[in-house]
Amino acid sequence: MMRPRTLDRYVALQFLRLWVLFALAAPVLFILMDVTDHLDNYLDRGLTLRQVAISYVYQLPLFVLYALPVASLIATIFTVNGMTRHSEVAAAKAGGISFYRLFAPLAVLGLLLTGVALGLSELVPVTNRLRAEVLGQRRSTAKARTDFVYRARDGHVLSVRRLDGGTGRMFGLSLEREGNEPAVPVIHVVAREATYDQQKGRWMLSDGYLRMLLDRGVERSFRFSRMLPLHLRESPEQLLAEPKDPEEMRYGELGQFIETLQRSGGRPLELMVKREQKIAIPVATFIVIIFAAPLATSAGRGGAAYGIGIALGITIFYLMLFKITGALGAGGALSPMVAAWLPNAVFLAAAIGMAARVKT
Fold first, then answer.
1. pLDDT for res 140
2. Per-residue confidence at 193, pLDDT binned at 50, 70, 90?
3. What is the CA radius of gyration of the chain?
4. Nearest 5°: CA angle at 314, between 313 and 317?
5. Sign of dihedral through CA atoms 31, 32, 34, 39?
6. What angle do CA 266, 272, 276 make, to 5 degrees?
7. DSSP 185-232
8. What is the pLDDT of residue 340?
9. pLDDT band at 1; cut points 50, 70, 90
10. What's the gap between Cα 19 and its chain centre?
11. pLDDT at residue 305 greater than cutoff 70
12. What is the per-residue pLDDT across 209-231, written as a single tens digit (0 to 9) for each?
């Protein structure tokens, strides 16, 4: 009889052998499909084969991220299915090893692969930006914004007549801070112009005045030719608050962008769902493994085609569920948190239900 550690290595080896095969095959398949659809378009735009090849190198992390849950699902089904058909599960049970203990290594591997997926989800936005630059797909972003109000993180309210993002200059601006005098004085700054120092990351105000309310009936005003506001740290790009592609922003960047839009009066529900999904989708790698393990025990007579069919069907349904709940969250019918995590919750509940019915 095999020892538990020997069984752990055996189960892990069976899973990883299949997982590596599908994890390598799926990105290659994605690339071939994408080349078939877009190669003519790339060549018509005058792109060289070298540029196209480099673009797919940059897109490879995205394809691997897409392949992780699919490969994990297929590898789990084939591992459990194969051991069931060859009576290895029955032999382990006869030796006093329960189904849960036998396939515990799959859950551990699922957690490790979820960590890999989370790392890739932070890398993919960077490679997406690089790919867009190689293919010349960078969108012409807005360089100016007029007549807007922006609320900074510390509560300062900035009102701007015109912002020129290209030159880093603002015209006709006022900066206000609410206070609680006499402890915290009210501050009101008006300036004709402001210039952004890219290296130092700060604004320099020109030709204006500073008004302070120190106490009830106590006011001080100062005129200045130049002034450095310590609380205005937002860059011209942040003040533009233009729509960006969430696929080119990391989790933290997306969170900052959402905060910027919210302070400007926006309600970016779709972006909030996208941010939550940047964690929820990688976690699906772990969920599908613990879902597929008890499912595969009921498919002991199925062959390879049957196992692949089940895996693809589950994957399509999972992705559809993410799309449906994501749309509901973007429309306000569900909170962004619920919209992003509901598919995982549904499959986790189903996994627990099936696991409870497995004969141990």
1. 47
2. very high
3. 28
4. 85
5. positive
6. 170
7. -EEEEEEEEEEEETTTTEEEEEEEEEEEEEETTEEEEEEEEEE--TT-
8. 94
9. very low
10. 23
11. no
12. 998 887 776 788 889 999 888 77
Higher pLDDT, 346 or 133: 346
Residue given tokens 């799959």 in the structure block: 106
Cα 79 to Cα 16, 104, 163, 215, 239, distances in angstroms: 9, 13, 60, 75, 53
**By three-state DSSP, how is residue 242 classified?**
coil
Burial class (CB in 10 A: 0-12, 13-18, 19+), 41: exposed
User: Going by C-beta distance under 8 Å and a sequence separation of 6 or more, which residues neighbour residue 29?
Assistant: none
Q: Give whole-number Cα distances, 284 to 10, 85, 200, 355, in Å.
A: 24, 27, 42, 17
Q: What is the pLDDT of residue 19?
A: 92
Instruction: Tell the residue number behind the tokens 């509560």, with chain if given.
Output: 155
pLDDT above 80 for 306 = no
Average pLDDT over residues 342-356: 90
Asked whether 259 and 225 are in contact (CB, 8 A), the reply is no
Cα angle, residue 111 at apex, residues 73 and 126 outer, rounded to 5°: 90
Structure tokens at 351: 């996994």
| Cα–Cα distance, 308 to 76 (Å, whole number) | 11
